[in-house]
Amino acid sequence: MKTLKKIILLTIFTCSAAQLFAQKASWIWYPGDFDIYMSNVMQNRRTERGSFFPVFWKMDSHYVLVDFHKEFNLAQSEEVKLFVEGTYNVKIDGQAIAGFPKSIQIPAGKHKLSLKVYNQAHVPAIFVQGKTVVSDETWLTTFEDKEWIDASGKTSDKSGTTFVSAGSWNLTDPTQLPSQFKLPVKGIAAVSRKKNEGGELLDFGKETFGFIKVHGLKGKGRLSLFYGESAEEAYSEDKCETLDYVDIDLAVKKDSIMPLSKAFRYVNRQTTGDVTVDSISMLYEYSPVTERGSFKSSDEELNKIYDVAKYTFHLNTREFFIDGIKRDRWVWSGDAYQSYLMNYYSFFDAPTVKRTLLAQRGKDPVTAHINTIMDYSFYWFLGIYDYYKFTGDQKFVQDIYPRMQSLMTYIDGRKNKNGLLEWMPGDWIFIDWADKLSKDGEVSFEQLLYARSLETMALCAKLANDTEGIAKYDKQAKELKNKIFELYWNQQKSALVHSRIDDKQTDNVTRYANMFGIFFDYFSPEQKLAVKKNVLLNDKIAKITTPYMRFYELEALCAMGEQPYVLKEMKNYWGGMLKLGATSFWEEYNPDKKGTEHLAMYGRPFGKSLCHAWGASPIYLLGKYYLGVQPTTPGYETYTIEPNLGGLAWMEGKVPTANGDISVFCSKKEIKVSSPTGVGKLKIKSKSKPVVKGAEVKEVSKGIYEVTIEKGKDYSVKYSG
Q: Which of 322, 300, 397, 297 shows the shortest CA–CA distance to 354?
């Protein structure tokens, strides 16, 4: 017992939540460590038919010994309470305090408080609570034990040790250890129970996620639970993807909660022996994000698509942004990148973006691409700059920049003789789930993402005050962009070809590099039009059947003003899933498939995920390209609102920012806007000059007008659409 207390010391003091919030005290740790630790915990919950199913890539771990310190200048002496997860020592001005103090007295004046914490099993973490001395992200940390105190008591770092700002998840309860963190749950009953041979089929009404709770369990024998996103899957005891077996011997009725969360709509409950069950419910597990973004229009089917997309996205928003709730329940970088974009137009949950980026990246040294996938390393870079663009959080970019540098150094070291990237042992070139999609040779799509990542590095180098990095990455990006058009642009096809093999262009043209080139703004106006005609709107080019890449295809078309076309595509594609009874959007949807073919994938009859984050992309498309709201400088200091009805009679919605929600209403005759942040530009296409009270209307080109939107004001603009 003494050993346990020494390893994990938890001291409990009475302190109101309001007081804690006012002090802004939080559990802190070495930045990225708790993110890595919790992602390991979450991702290793995956099972397949009761078997443990670990991730495909190297998993890093936390540092086991961490130093925390901060200097304070106190007007008067202060009592400070200490909460620590791990074995620790405490120093004031370099002088150790005996034992494991639960509270200390810091004298008035300038002092340095230091805690050094060891914990092999969990992340070393501290919670410091005084009147002014509190733990937060302003504390400095290091995992190196090389700091020395000279005779005068002044701190000097003789070894070049790097101190970095502490990490935090805003966990403000000192009595709740970080390692005990769990998402909240709430009880939900099944909507129907249907008896079958040996048991019953429970229907919870829609796709959901959580822990099954069995009420009034009694008898001797086995309880079997077969989970299904479809009734067919739940009924298939030998082929369903997830299940639970519980052997019991109970003389008295007892309630039991399954130890692992599952994704399901249906549960097939079977029993053997004389086992009886009164009823079954679930504990719905969810991320407590705030519903902020919204969209509603004159088209009821589109409204349903938006609502189901948002529900799909919320189900896949957990401790981190994951791919799907049935499988894989992992932090895939390509999936997460799309989740970031959807998040900025729905929950605007910045902490989950940061923790996902940190968890994906892990530790140095870099030995493989993120998730072992070349393209997924590039999405990681893009996610960081987008985070800065939407939030304005420069500090996070500065903190993570060294990890960006080391990953880019690894990538740069894998170029071939032509300065391009191609498959090497240990790599997975993914791009998309598509039949007969070649990954051989130098694939243009990978070079395009590489160029964009180098541009991102140059921008982030500027934010991190890395002058040499700015010049280096900018030069690399420009050289690679020039090389892409020199080597891949085919004048006869008016498109980028898919790949080069043996230093020669292949004849194959796919949508991937071409559609990214549009919203990356890499093409000339003439090239954009040619690509739209010869690739994006050309049925002879292989079609995309995953929501994953439909996301980008439709974004490219929206970027070129094809909202009416995209609206029809959204209704056909996502509406097609709804017509088949979808209550969340799928990993893949091919309209040509029939019946249970829609449930199969990976050679398994129920292998497909029917709730996949990348299926929720209408959230992003409707917010950015129909309501038309997007930042033009970081953190929405400036932004544009360019509504496009795309064939709708009217629409309204909210787009969240760090400082509040931007509201937009648009019909064919009126636009209403209000904003709590920055300075916006409302761009309007109108046959005649719009009319608005209290603002100037400027004609910027023929039929295009602008109105400046100031925060805190309401605008009603009459126009001729």
A: 397
